[in-house]
Specification:
Strand 2 (16-26) and strand 3 form a beta hairpin. The strands form 2 sheets. The chain has a 4-stranded antiparallel sheet with strand order 3-2-5-6, with helices on one face. It has a two-stranded antiparallel sheet with strand order 1-4. With 122 residues, it is mostly beta strands. The protein has a single domain, classed as Immunoglobulin-like (Sandwich), CATH 2.60.40. The longest helix has 7 residues, at 104-110. 9% of the residues lie in helices and 46% in strands.
Length: 122
């Protein structure tokens, strides 16, 4: 079984080559982060275009220890948010979210897949 997470992104600037993004689960009352999943997506997103990025993972959304308060609601509703941590542009420059994890942009640049050209495609 896989859990699929998605983020719809509209590019209003220069061409994007990759996105580091987090999918967060928040407490609906105090907005505290209860869990998160981290994704890296490599896809070219031209300016003025929108795409939906997807990440698949086997880990369930979050694991929560039930308290007497949470037992009243057997299926608590969490707030869910996708947050962009870093954008990698095709010219190898980056935009970094001020609250992003340290070294996430460096990871995004370093792990970038190699572009392979087919013979005679030039």
């Amino acid at each position: 079984m896989y859990y699929v997470y998605s983020l719809k992104i509209r590019n209003s600037g220069k061409q994007i080559a990759g996105v580091a993004w987090d999918y967060l689960f928040l407490d609906p009352i105090n907005h505290a982060e209860l869990g998160s999943h981290q994704f890296v997506s490599y896809t070219k997103i031209p300016g003025d275009k929108a795409v939906t990025l997807q990440g698949q993972i086997r880990t369930p959304p979050i694991r929560v220890i039930r308290t007497s308060q949470s037992l009243k609601n057997a299926h608590p509703k969490f707030l869910e948010r996708a947050v962009i941590q870093c954008l990698l542009y095709t010219d190898d420059t980056v935009w970094k979210n001020p609250n992003a994890r340290e070294l996430i942009c460096e990871f995004l640049k370093k792990e970038k897949p190699l572009v392979r050209h087919k013979p005679g495609a030039d």
